[in-house]
From TrEMBL:
The lineage of its organism: Bacteria, Pseudomonadati, Bacteroidota, Sphingobacteriia, Sphingobacteriales. PANTHER family: OUTER MEMBRANE PROTEIN TOLC (PTHR30026), TO APRF-PUTATIVE OUTER MEMBRANE EFFLUX PROTEIN OR SECRETED ALKALINE PHOSPHATASE-RELATED (PTHR30026:SF23). GO terms for cellular component: cell outer membrane; efflux pump complex. This is TolC family protein. Keywords: Cell outer membrane, Coiled coil, Membrane, Transmembrane, Transmembrane beta strand.
């Protein structure tokens, strides 16, 4: 069993050495820059923003006059005139057989209840929502990237701690074997230490697999191949991160939270929709014109077979009387939708406040957890030192020594976990308030 563990350890160490040449050192900021470029979710949001820009331009173009050109070419037969009844031979009345017309017409809207302006305002609001949704997606992806980065960083810390612990255990095993030769300890002591060492080496294999999995998840976010080894370069732990007051974070969230700003724009959109419904009951005024060439001239009597042109221009006004009673329920529906959206906006504000409060308290809690974990490490180190001395002085059992070693390694794992959890909780707080 011990021989198998040694082979596994040697294989993992060789693998790490071989991959070191292709390792890619990255800071968290560099990871975010890459995720902003390669994340498919962010790319889809960017397409939506581009589309919203085009929809604004399309709405603005509606202010331009509507123009059209057309023409027709016709062949007409003579007109039979039945002077003596339907069943008698008719007299053929000669007509102009070839008729054609070519012209253009246009219409320029002057006023239609400000529906064009409301359409432009609506598309601009959609654009603001798309931009905020893109920012929200970027923030969420950055938080996910931070989680993967810290997860990878924690696993690498675990790996280094485990390798060091295995090296210490091997030295300790050599000492115990020497004590066995001198008849100071029992054979069972050696077997127990060897068993623990084999388990530690198996745990190292698990950690290596965790690193590989975390690495792949991070690579997917930043657009790297699955096999690319990423080495986190940021200092472990939240020592470089600052903690402000709850009131300052809450004030910042109300000004910058993406969820809150999206909700505010959706409320503005409902207001515009209500105005648009009210505009159904409004006067519509526009300029129109028509110009054409035609032959023959049958517009005025007497007719003649000559080419002529005619231009007409005027003002067209209309008022939809039926909209006075048909629009009443539509307007009421729009008012209720606005009221519902205002309630949703208020609920969003409540949720943002709750998220800020929770993230803030959890971050403070995580910082306290780091202090506790550091104290535990020092206590476990001292306990291990004492038990190690007493064991080799034959004052304690091998089980006490093994337990003390396990506790020391576990407290170091707990400290690394606490540091990574505090950092992740900090980024969660920044995500909630709109700072990522």
């Amino acid at each position: 069993m011990a021989l198998w563990g040694c082979l596994v350890l040697r294989t993992s160490l060789l693998s790490a050495q071989q991959s070191a040449g292709t390792a890619l050192p990255l800071s968290l900021q560099q990871v975010w820059q890459r995720s902003d470029v390669y994340s498919k979710a962010i790319q889809m949001q960017k397409v939506k923003v581009q589309r919203s820009k085009e929809e604004i331009r399309d709405a603005v173009v509606e202010r331009l006059p509507e123009l059209s050109v057309g023409g027709n070419f016709e062949q007409a037969t003579n007109i039979p005139v039945y002077e003596h009844g339907l069943f008698s031979a008719p007299t053929q009345h000669e007509v102009i057989h070839t008729l054609y017309k070519i012209g253009a017409d246009g219409y320029l809207n002057i006023y239609n209840g400000s529906k064009t302006n409301l359409k432009i305002a609506e598309e601009k609001t959609h654009d603001k929502i798309a931009i905020e949704q893109q920012n929200l997606t970027i923030s969420d992806i950055r938080y996910r990237a931070a989680a993967r980065y810290l997860e990878l960083q924690r696993s690498m810390i675990f790996k280094n701690l485990m390798i060091k612990d295995i090296a210490d255990q091997e030295k300790q095993l050599a000492e115990i074997r020497q004590f066995l030769k001198n008849g100071v300890v029992l054979k069972s002591d050696v077997l127990r230490v060897e068993l623990k060492l084999s388990r530690q080496k198996l745990s190292l294999v698990t950690i290596e697999n965790d690193i590989s999995l975390s690495n792949q998840k991070l690579n997917i976010l930043i657009g790297e191949p699955d096999e690319q080894i990423v080495i986190p370069t940021d200092k472990a732990g939240p020592d470089a991160l600052t903690l402000g007051t709850y009131e300052s974070y809450l004030s910042e969230a109300m000004a910058k939270s993406f969820q809150y700003r999206i909700s505010a724009q959706e409320t503005e959109l409902k207001k515009i929709e209500l105005k648009n419904v009210k505009a159904n009951v409004s006067l519509k005024v526009g300029l129109y014109g028509d110009f054409y060439y035609a032959n023959p001239q049958i517009f005025l009597y007497p007719y003649n077979p000559h080419l002529y042109s005619l231009g007409i221009a005027g003002v067209r006004a209309s008022f939809p009387l039926s909209a006075i009673y048909l629009n009443r329920h539509k307007e009421k529906i729009a008012e209720l939708e606005l009221k519902n959206q205002e309630l949703e906006h208020s609920d969003t504000e409540d949720n943002v406040r709750k998220q800020v409060k929770e993230a803030y308290l959890r971050y403070k809690e995580a910082l306290i957890g780091i202090d506790v974990a550091r104290v535990n490490v020092e206590q476990a180190k001292e306990n291990y030192r004492i038990v190690n001395n007493t064991y080799f002085n034959q004052s304690s059992l091998i089980t006490d020594l093994l337990d003390a070693g396990v506790q020391l390694l576990q407290t170091r794992f707990d400290l690394a976990t606490a540091e990574m959890a505090a950092s992740l909780q900090y980024y969660q707080l920044q995500n909630v308030i709109g700072n990522l």
